[in-house]
Write a structure and sequence with these properties.
Radius of gyration: 35 Å
Helix content: 25-40%
Distance between the termini: 114 Å
Shape: elongated
Enzyme class: transferase
Structural class: alpha+beta
Strand content: 25-35%
Protein name: polyribonucleotide nucleotidyltransferase
InterPro entries: ExoRNase_PH_dom1 (IPR001247), ExoRNase_PH_dom2 (IPR015847), ExoRNase_PH_dom2_sf (IPR036345), KH_dom_type_1_sf (IPR036612), NA-bd_OB-fold (IPR012340), PNPase (IPR012162), PNPase/RNase_PH_dom_sf (IPR027408), PNPase_PH_RNA-bd_bac/org-type (IPR015848)
CATH superfamily of the largest domain: GHMP Kinase, N-terminal domain
CATH topology of the largest domain: Ribosomal Protein S5, domain 2
Number of domains: 5
Number of strands: 29
GO molecular function, one term: polyribonucleotide nucleotidyltransferase activity
Keywords: Nucleotidyltransferase, RNA-binding, Transferase
């Protein structure tokens, strides 16, 4: 009986244990789906294996590049009338088999590439969150593996879409994302890193079902408009493959969406009271075309406070923030309705009309290049600084691996100080917005800058006034500053922003019933509108595009129309810029840096360098000239101006003692004078003022010589030697006395 009971107990324990492991292993199996694009490349999306405690988790894989994305949303809402979405994209060195090169050997603050990719993902997801969703939500993209062939950013967008779709977080997705390249007149879907380096187009398209565009981001090598429009259509079509696959994965493994509490709304009586006190007065403000940004804002702020005070008398229990939030909704509604009713904008312009433009170049003599560009109340001050290639921006190892770029010889830094909008604030590290605007302006101008330019170019753009589209003003001002600096750009570039005001139905998809496209938008038109569509390029074609869409997707028709309107406005701006400066400056400025090539004989390189490179450092400190090697015998001299170059060349001449040495004939016999005895041989000279050359012990005599004194050699003694040219590596002369003794015998 005891054995039977023990057996049954053990059997039951093993059965429970096996059942536990079986259920655990079953739950850890990944549920996978494959997205097949038209060119045969595949994206795998899986769930259920990692991070199962998160609200949603998905792993995206292309090739050997895998990214895990998690989505978590808090259960309690926050205050405010915006969606508190946080996207963190982090590059892990371990995923690429690397160790970080910083002091702590670990990942520290976010790099520029990580921030720009986070913004790319954020802009693809944010428009599809429902209105009044005030729950803090975080998307974390964690790189598991990187193969240096496939870029992880497209994988991250699709995996983030899958994670949100699979979660119980309310979200009206999914979206699909693809990258479109253009090589040899062929469009390539999700090109590899090497293919992208050869591509004249880098277009990222995020779209949802029914071919609705959610986000666009592009840089192009001055691409023609018809080719660019076709690329957008292809990208939207290919994105549908990812959308349909994520929908299938959501139906089979997704969680039911949670219900969320909406903020307490005002009573009908309070809403009517606020509307009656504000609507007519708001219409008068927006019809007054003489108001500028500050005066219009002051009028609206005064009205807001007046309405809040009067409402408090009739509804003393209402909070101030609740009243002002609803007043903001009324303001937005009145502003948008007035555009359809008046067929004009709040500043009196037609829908396709540009603001007044003023531009000027060559503002300050010490600057290599400078320009100010003003469009309405948006003003930017741009400067160009030219320096040596040693000043090129070095990228971090993981960015080098994923992008293929080791350094940048052209970069743009964008600054947006608080006084540009009459505000106060801290001046410190760049925010995500400033970094994104600077990257967009840099992409817009990069195709026009020569890639073989002998200098590193730093372009700065400081926003002095801002009332909409400061990044596109930076493109215009930056192009003028480059021409003022004499940089031989292929063509001037300009940029413009297109806005959108729509009338939509009440559905969650917000189907568009009517719309108006606005050229060269104001800040208030961007804030109250549904789209910020920025396009830059030359007269010939397009160099960059960025579309931030606030609706849950736009039809291709509106996107195509926006491209056409932006291209027309861009051409008009270029005509105005042409009147200011038509082409790059031909006559160099006095302070323009110079570069010259220096040839140094191998045996004189030690004279140029000095001990530990002390001579090069001395030249740099005294003149500002930087000397860098090109090859074994050639050096590049960079000097900040011609005067510094002349001073540096004078020092170099003294160091090298450029008195020309007589040409020695290979195999010739010469009389050498001993100037020094050493343990390994003797130092001799063949002609006056010649640097001493070593005659090694092995070449002194037919016998084995341990020290020159064994042969009675003295300083000042003359002997015949044979010349065998110079060593190809060290550049030292090769001499021999032994071969003459052998021939004499």
């Amino acid at each position: 009986m005891m054995n039977t009971a023990r057996y049954l107990k053990r059997y039951t324990h093993l059965k429970i244990k096996n059942t536990f492991f079986k259920s655990y292993s079953d739950s850890s199996l990944a549920n996978e789906i494959e997205v097949a694009f038209s060119n045969g490349r595949k994206l795998k999306l899986s769930t259920g294996k990692y991070a199962k405690l998160a609200d949603g988790s998905a792993v995206g894989t292309i090739g050997d590049t895998s990214v895990m994305v998690t989505a978590v949303s808090k259960s309690k809402p926050t205050s405010g009338n915006f969606t508190p979405l946080i996207v963190d994209y982090r590059q892990k060195s371990a995923a690429a088999g690397r160790i970080p090169t910083n002091f702590l050997r670990r990942e520290l603050g976010a790099t520029e590439r990580e921030i720009l990719t986070s913004r790319l993902i954020d802009r693809s997801l944010r428009p599809l969150f429902p209105d009044n969703f005030n729950y803090e939500t975080q998307i974390i993209c964690n790189m598991l593996a990187v193969d240096s062939i496939n870029n992880p950013d497209i994988v991250s967008i699709n995996a983030a879409s899958a994670a949100l779709s699979l979660s119980d977080i309310p979200w009206n997705g999914p979206v699909g994302a693809v990258r479109v390249g253009y090589i040899d007149n062929e469009y390539i879907i999700n090109p590899t890193r090497r293919e992208l380096q050869c591509s004249s187009l880098n277009l990222v398209v995020s779209a949802t079902k029914q071919n609705l565009v959610v986000m666009l981001e592009a840089s192009a090598d001055n691409m023609l408009q018809p080719d660019f429009l076709k690329a957008i259509k292809i990208g939207v079509k290919e994105a549908q493959c990812a959308v349909h696959s994520i929908e299938k994965l959501q139906k089979s493994h997704g969680k039911p969406k949670r219900t969320f509490e909406k903020q307490a709304e005002l009573s009908h009586e309070a809403k009517v009271a606020i509307e009656s006190l504000s609507q007519m007065r708001l219409r008068e403000i927006f019809k007054n075309h003489s108001l500028d940004k500050l005066s219009r804002d002051n009028e609206v702020n005064y009205l807001r406070n007046d309405v809040a005070d009067k409402i408090h008398l009739d509804f003393p229990t209402l909070e101030y923030n609740t009243v002002t939030d609803y007043f903001s909704k009324v303001t937005k509604s009145v502003f948008r309705d007035s555009i359809f009713e008046e067929e004009k904008r709040c500043d009196g312009r037609e829908f396709d009309e540009l603001r007044n433009i003023f531009c000027e170049v060559d503002l300050y003599k010490p600057l290599h290049g400078s320009a100010v560009f003003q469009r309405g109340q948006t003003q930017v001050f741009c400067t160009v600084t030219l320096d040596s290639h040693e000043s090129a921006m070095k990228l971090d190892p993981l960015s080098i691996l994923t992008s293929g770029l080791k350094e940048k010889n052209f970069f743009l830094h964008y600054e947006f100080p608080p006084f540009a909008t009459k505000e106060t604030g801290k001046i410190g590290p760049l925010g995500r917005r400033e970094m994104g605007h600077g990257a967009l302006a840099e992409k817009s101008l990069y195709p026009t800058v020569p890639h073989d330019f002998p200098f590193t170019i730093r372009l700065t753009s400081e926003v002095l006034e801002s009332n909409g589209s400061s990044s596109m003003a930076s493109v215009c001002g930056g192009s003028l500053a480059l021409m003022d600096a004499g940089v031989p750009i292929s063509a001037p570039a300009a940029g413009v922003a297109i806005g959108l005001i729509t009338k939509c139905d009440g559905s969650y998809t917000k189907n568009i019933e009517d719309y108006k496209l606005l050229t060269d938008i104001l800040g208030i038109e961007d804030y109250m509108g549904d789209m910020d569509f920025k396009l830059a390029g030359t007269k010939k074609g397009i160099t960059a595009l960025q579309a931030d869409i606030k609706l849950p997707g736009l039809p291709l028709k509106i996107i195509m129309e926006a491209v056409l309107k932006a291209s027309d406005a861009k051409s008009k701006i270029l005509d105005i810029m042409h009147n200011c400066m038509a082409k790059p400056r031909a006559v160099k400025k006095e302070n323009w840096p110079v570069v010259e090539k220096l040839e140094v004989e191998p045996h004189k390189r030690t004279k140029l360098f000095g001990v530990g490179g002390i001579n090069l450092k001395k030249i740099l400190y005294e003149t500002g000239a930087h000397i860098s090697p090109l090859d074994d015998n050639s050096f590049s001299i960079f000097a900040p101006n011609q005067q510094a170059m002349d001073e540096a060349k004078e020092i170099i001449t003294k160091l090298l003692n450029t008195e020309r040495a007589p040409d020695l004939e290979f195999g010739g016999i010469y009389t050498a004078t001993v100037v020094e005895l050493r343990d390994i041989g003797v130092m001799v000279t063949l002609y006056p003022n010649m640097p001493p050359a070593l005659l090694h012990n092995s070449q002194l005599d037919q016998k084995k010589v341990m020290h020159p004194s064994a042969l009675g050699v003295e300083v000042g003694q003359q002997m015949s030697v044979k010349y065998f040219g110079r060593d190809p590596v060290s550049g030292l002369m090769r001499l021999s006395r032994k071969v003459l003794q052998a021939s004499a015998r």
